[in-house]
Amino acid sequence: MKTELIISDFDGTLVDTQEANFQAYKKVLSHFNILLTEDMYHHLFGMRLKEFMQYIGINDANMIEQIKEMKARIYPNYFNLIRTNNQLFEFIALMKRNGVKTALASTAQKQNIYNLLDYTKQSNLFDLVITGSDVMKGKPDPECFLSIMSHFNCKAEATLIFEDSPVGIEAAIQSQAQYIQIYKF
Fold first, then answer.
1. How many structural domains compose the chain?
2. For the domain that residue 157 is a member of, what is the CATH number?
3. Do 71 and 92 share a domain, yes or no?
4. Are 114 and 130 in contact (CB under 8 A)?
5. Euclidean distance between CA atoms 83 and 92, whole angstroms
6. Residue 42: pLDDT band by 50, 70, 90 thresholds?
7. Integer CA distances (angstroms), 138 to 32, 75, 117, in order
8. DSSP calls for 92-149
9. What residues make up the domain containing 10?
10. How confident is the model at residue 109 (pLDDT cuts 50, 70, 90)?
């Protein structure tokens, strides 16, 4: 069956933001006298914000919102630390030019994604962007992929997903779409 829809994860698949995120969170958390180590962050990378905050001992909703807002404000200062998967960006652009629908499915914060898409000059590449705030269940639940397929009225067998993380791969498998795992680029 012909590919009608490409869905890509964002972080770790199209861009590597781990160092930029680490530095931004480290800076914000230092304002609250919390030391975030590289090892700690590596273990937590990819978690939804609420789970990440709970893991480091922050349960206060107001404090979490403050951290989220502060991080969003300073995050662009660290964009120079981001690496892009240019080959995958180019492939998706080629497929889009050939009539394939394109979507992004990420647990990242919506504003962070749009800021990064602008920074990488890819803001027009995706027909649809789904973030963690758009779904009830995060990966490994396939809700984000199934929601995108439903939006485009596209069957799983006509969908190709690009993912990097074990939870993303599990979600792709559960969606019954074809997938390609992206390793470090």
1. 2
2. 3.40.50.1000
3. no
4. no
5. 17
6. confident
7. 28, 23, 21
8. HHHHHHTT-EEEEE-SS-HHHHHHHHHHTT-TTS-SEEE-GGG-SS-TTSTHHHHHHH
9. 5-16+82-181
10. confident
